[in-house]
Amino acid sequence: MVGVAITGVGLHPFGRFVDKSVTEMGVDAVRAALRDAGNPTFEAAFCGTAYSGVAAGHKVLSAIARTGMPIVDIEAGCASGAAALALAAGAIRAGQYETVLVFGIEKMPKGIIRSSFFEPWREQAGLAATPSYFALRAQRLMREQGVTKSDFAQVVVKNRAHGVLNPDAMFRKPVMVEEVFASRVVCEPLHLWMLCSPNEGAAAVVLQRSDNPRISLRAAVLRSHLPGSVLGEATPMAGIDDTNITPPTVLAVRQAYEEANCGPTDLDLVECQDTDAARELLAWEELGLCKPGEQGRALRDGAHVLGGPLPVNVSGGLLSKGEPLGASALGQVVEIVQQLRGDCGDRQVAHARIGLAHTVGRGANASAVIVAREHSVH
Amino acid sequence: MRVRSIEPNGFRVDADGEHGSAVLLGGYSPTSKQFHFPRQIVCPYSGAEDVVAVDLSRDATVWGWTVVTTAPPGYTGAVPYGFGVVELTTEQLRIVTRLQIDDVSELEFGDSMQLSYDIVSKDDDGTDVAAWAFTRRVR
Asked: With an 8 Å Cβ cutoff, are A187 and B67 in contact?
């Protein structure tokens, strides 16, 4: 198969920037990625965004006089950036392009995300509050997997401790379990600090065809849901017994492992969807990092902290960075590339060679991206 | 007092009736042997096109529950309110619903529930707008 190299990455920090437009944030990330890649000519650009409006990607590239090539905006909920990455990688593998720019941008208001996905009557009925669905999923995890509320708090403590070490994160103070429980209850069992904040930011990646890549994009997979699961990210009004319905994350990651010729035991780090603390614990089993019901033990063993056997969300995750929908999946890829290059300073994962990035959200859309360092750094 | 359904394609409410007048409108496909809600022209689980209209049963057990403490975007009704999923006893269908219960924390998995309705807003002409809700079954 044609090799796809990641030759440049760029990031605009995730946070709140009242005086900065989404276009300006995109310009910062794109310029950084192009500079990092040696300022190549690119033949196409794919932009992931959900809330930036018409031709948002065009506005970014117009601002730096880099237009003329096809520019495609892509919306796939929380996986928008990964969807852009998957399309770009596919076009390179198909021989259509040599070099493609991929970026993701977002500027979202505070509070519960409002989505045109929901019919107005459903909002009016009070049946469109996303944290309430997260809460039911968390409750189910407690009932069926023996996960506890304290485990949810421990995930927040872990990710926020990682976020302290990330200068591009929004929240950079460590927190304790008691403080997590002291934050207000949004929807039992989820407290405010167990939920990530929708916010603002941008990320960019340059992909190039290569027969001998140093950092390779081994797999970039996007999948949607199969029907039937009432608590799945497709948020239907009803569902059936979902015992034998494979979730979209599992569909995506199985395909990604196959394409990348590796499995969960080969991974050195994982960035996963911690929309809420329970979602991260569900992702652990969906991605094959632990067996169902073993999340509590993995937490107690420190299996997924920086310095542990397989660090998860060393960037701080969405719980520390916030979630600018279109940018978040590419932000994960930027983190993994920087880790594979050994550029992450205090939060560096030792000897990192293969990383997995995962998102799942509205649609449903789930993505699994596997990036590997194919040559020794030295 | 006039009452109208918030979504007539999925829910019928009789203005003059008691709680028993609320009905969830579903579909059934004999090919896939599967009920669904709200009613659609194609079975959402199999794609089968032999959907027949059915009124769904009113009895259920509670399968998931929480309390929404802050009004979400687009919602103007009272807060806090109960929210959850119930499983219809006959159809084995899991329905997303409001829960009309004073103290949701007292609920236990599998508790018996029955269909009711909640007033979530009012039209300009004073008509109450009703959404389906489930409440504890009266023993």
From this structure: yes
Q: Is residue A309 part of a domain?
A: yes
Between chains, do B6 and A238 touch, taking CB under 8 Å as contact?
Answer: no
Facing B75 at nearest CB: one of A119, A124, A240: A124
The pLDDT, as a whole number, for residue B17 is 60
Range list of H helices, chain A: 22-36, 56-62, 80-93, 120-124, 130-145, 149-163, 177-182, 248-260, 277-286, 295-300, 317-321, 325-341
Closest CA to A25 of A76, A52, A60, A54: A60
Q: Which of residues 349-368 of A touch B (CB under 8 A)?
A: none
* Domain membership flag for residue A348: yes
8 A C-beta contact, residue B31 and residue B43: yes
Would strands A190-191 and A185-187 be described as parallel, antiparallel, or unpaired? Answer: antiparallel
**What CATH number should be reported for the domain holding residue A323?**
3.40.47.10
Residue A151 lies in a domain: no
How far is it, in rounded angstroms, from Cα A121 to Cα A354? 46
Which letter does DSSP use for residue B10 in this model?
T
CB B3 within 8 A of CB B16: no
* Banded model confidence at residue B105, pLDDT cuts 50, 70, 90: confident
pLDDT of residue B123: 95
Whether A127 is covered by a domain: the verdict is no
Beta-sheet pairing, A215-224 with A238-239: unpaired
DSSP A78: B
Which of A52-88 are b and which e, b meaning 16 or more Cβ less than 10 Å from the residue's Cβ?
beeebbbbbbebeebeeeebebbbbbbbbbbbbbbbb
Number of domains in chain A: 1
Residue A284 is part of which domain span? 4-110+196-373
Q: Which of B67, B95, B131 sits opposite A125 (nearest CB)?
A: B131
pLDDT score of A355 more than 90:
yes
Look at residue A184 in the predicted model and tell me its pLDDT.
96
- Nearest neighbour of A112 by CB, restricted to B72, B77, B85: B72
